[in-house]
Amino acid sequence: MGLIIDTQKPAFGLDISDVSMKAMLLQKKKSEVSPRAWADLKIPPGVIENDEIKDKKFLVQSIKNLIQNTKGGLIKTKRVIASIPESKSFVRIINLPPMEDEEIKEAIPWEVEEHIPVDIENVYLDWQKIEVGKKPKSVWLEGKENINQTKILVVATPKKIIDDLAEVLKKADLIPQILEIESAAATRALIPKEDFGPYLIIDIDAYRTSFIIINKQILQLTTSIPIAGNAFTDVIARRLGIDDQEAEQLKRKHGLDKKKKRGRIYQALAPSLSNLTEEVNRLIKFYQEYFPAKNKISKVILCGGSAKLPGIASCLTHALKLDVKLGNPWVNIYKTKGRIPPISYKNSLSYTTAIGLALRGIVNK
Fold first, then answer.
1. 124 and 205, same domain (yes or no)
2. What is the pTM of this model?
3. Does 338 score more than 80 pLDDT?
4. CATH of the domain at 217
């Protein structure tokens, strides 16, 4: 789902967060897609805080620097598909009677107004029909049957977030083609096109962990919590009485391996892992109360920079009693045997959103 749409020409993906930005340009030759150019750049503290742009001038120059220092090749297109921060967007599912698209467009603001914590006049709305003529249970009507209802996925994002991002992109001499929430991009990268089963994606970033539930290739639910990479580092530093730099190194090297450092790193992270597990179980329970039992979630995919924490997939598999695996953001790109991506699979986890955005840049070619 995008909030600015003009999909006639190819574009590159640009994922921007509080701590870094990543660019990815994909090219298509005949039936094969491959990376043409990519780049990664750290963002210093204070430029973006809590997913809000604080220093537009610095961010503009950072974007220009990123594009000028790509690997693999050059990014010559000015058209960009950029990420909208998940934490600043509100994703809701509503039920409406059967009606034409124009009528849906008029009805949505009235339906969602009571369910987002900001004035409806101060947000941009985007929507997508995900079920037509079914009998779903509405999360807003407390489980009552709604016969012959159309289920609509609605995304609302504050105008200031969108306008500030669009302004920065334009000042960086780019043309915003689509602005898309991170969860939609991650889904496009991680879920095989032919796979319609339900999935839970856990995107572990530096400052937050996002939970994304997908079924039939359609976003169903998304939320986030502040248990993430930097919090893991802080816990290790406090428990072991060391500085953040050393704690970060130990986290990346040993992670949740019980055998390393006499299990001290694991023991420090165990409470955070337990809290993460509780949040996942609570989310799955909530989801399955409102969706048919046949959509029971059995597969969990990890992505994001902090998903590289050693041992996290196996620990979550044991704790959740579900199949938890590291995601493969190249799953819809490298289908021919023998083809190897230029970025290692482990490091590719950090590029998941950028790859998903870039995939949309070639969808309509």
1. no
2. 0.88
3. no
4. 3.30.420.40
